[in-house]
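Repro case for the chain-ordering regression, as requested:
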Amino acid sequence: MDDPGGTGRSDGRGTSAARPKRPTMSDVAARVGVSQALVSLVFRNQPGASADTRRRVFRAAEELGYRPDTAAQLLRRTRSRQLGVLFTMRQPHDVGVVEALYSAARKHGYTLVLNAMVDTRDERQAMDELLGLRCEAIITIGTTFERHHPATGVGGPFVVEINPLTRAAGTDVVRTAERNGMRQAVDHLVAQGHRAIAHIDGGTMPAADDRRRGYRAAMRRHGLADHIQVHPGDYTEESGARVARDLLARAELPTAVIAGNDRCAHGLLGTFLRAGVRVPEDVSIVGYDDSQLARLSFIDLTSVRQDAAEAADRAVRAAVERLDEGRTADRDIVLDPTLVVRGSTGPPRATSTPDGDPLR
Amino acid sequence: MDDPGGTGRSDGRGTSAARPKRPTMSDVAARVGVSQALVSLVFRNQPGASADTRRRVFRAAEELGYRPDTAAQLLRRTRSRQLGVLFTMRQPHDVGVVEALYSAARKHGYTLVLNAMVDTRDERQAMDELLGLRCEAIITIGTTFERHHPATGVGGPFVVEINPLTRAAGTDVVRTAERNGMRQAVDHLVAQGHRAIAHIDGGTMPAADDRRRGYRAAMRRHGLADHIQVHPGDYTEESGARVARDLLARAELPTAVIAGNDRCAHGLLGTFLRAGVRVPEDVSIVGYDDSQLARLSFIDLTSVRQDAAEAADRAVRAAVERLDEGRTADRDIVLDPTLVVRGSTGPPRATSTPDGDPLR
DNA sequence: CAGTACAACTAGTACGTACAAGTGCTACGT
DNA sequence: ACGTAGCACTTGTACGTACTAGTTGTACTG
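-- result from build under test --
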């Protein structure tokens, strides 16, 4: 028995002076003169209370400063209607997805529980927190989901992965048609007259494999197999900067470069500009993600757009299908990207052709 | 009475086939042949169980796939030991603070509950979620905290604001000594020989007022009151880009510009470079925050460093002082920034002085 | 050998809410 | 007049855990 006799009204072990207990439904009920259950009905907006009573309940609640206790609700409810979100805050595109998830979840009557993956916390730990909070499904963004997590077995929560590193059985996946995106990028450049089109790949980053394959395939389709040129990199600015320096040290630059993502393209662009290489006059650059970065006026990057809002929406819908509509088969949702043409691409410079000024 | 007779073992309203209920402490206890209370002891690492029993409990828990239910813990526990975090994901510096908060909180035995402020959700709503989850204190990062939130009164949770928009009574504040930072920036430029030093202010952004005042004071201290030049802006790249265009349209550029933050400096820098203005040869640029952006090799921005880790640590400590050590007086914690000198600042070009090559 | 101390447990309840199953009461039809 | 709805409400638990107050059993003290 806790606190027999009410001795505990003294403030908890010397923390601030006598913090009053937060009011409960029963307090509200007592003030109105009804039962706790009725207050519960009112707050859940269920039928069974008169309009007048509803008003009085809300008024009393406001006067007392009552607010429902999520912990108790979670414990008692059959469903938590919570979706866990595992994300890093490093990629601007991911941030957009998180933002979009809020509205997508709300539309379906779910609440989000965020959990950032930071260097000092591994995914396991983050997952445990989400599971402890009774999330019914977990949405991961651009991260490796550890398939062998003990809770992932039968009866565990459903998992939806947005742009995962690798595809896992037993989970739904929302991803971009990377080869399609790459094809559009290459097509666009080829249409402008480019032939020497290089690619900075994303190494072990999510979707990097598919993008690289898409680049290769598209180049071959245009008969440019000989011009295929893949530079190892990742999804950071510095990898783009490094490749830029490597390229500058060579005899001849490619006329166009498709980066693994916008951040990488940014590093490439910035380093080129610093070195006096003009974009797009000397080199065209294409990014990937169409993040905020690409849209900045002084960057103005042609980029393969992945719609964050759509990805978020589809991910939530996938979760809802499993949770509310009984789907059990895995789904692989592939979204088509669109190339957004901006100022970082243009016709190629005249490479080693003897026709005068290579500039626009 | 719920589910009398156990009929509810049929799966909940046609969701996926028969999801097994998650195991509880009692299930673990039954398997080991002890009481639920003992399992609770073991999981809380409290004395009162033999080493052998502990081992058996953990083994049984693992076999059953048991994990503690946070909702129930929260409900039962005297203290939630949770800190709510209100943040936007827009400023890179803020992201660093959130990351650092995780370790700072863990060091003091607290858990973080993240809540992003997105356009579609107001602060009120976010606060309500955090309060519903029994957060003992709330840490806001670079946001306006609505002082008049109903829960903020007596007995509400404590609030610690990191770099708030405005200082509020009844809350602790962790902020940067902005005037100090600005003074360092101006001193550095003056030492290099600059006199025409402009400032792009942050408008209504957090700390913008103090930075502007710091700039003015420092300029006056150097007898450069006549050179004070404040351009309105905010904390986005585009505001920097806009100011850059404005400046380019003038007869003469200032020899140095101190931006409101790194993102703004980035826009300024990028636009200048695009226009053929060299940095630092033609114009020196100083940023503010020393975010990741400033450190990129091709940006290499001299910037006023705000230590995210220290801010996070002090914020958590402020919360702990109130929660665990009974402090009741408000605290205003001011952290000294440090100027980090990089490649975006150098001696001024020779402005209209007749002494030859203005370049380095 | 009684008495005490301690370790290793168990019993019982409370946290704040949601849900199922009642209980009055009024209105209505036959 | 009697039965029957249906509304507006109440009663009673149960969710999974934490915490207080026991209750054993064993070893040790004087």
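Ordering looks correct now. Residues 79 and 136 of chain A are 8 Å apart (CA to CA).
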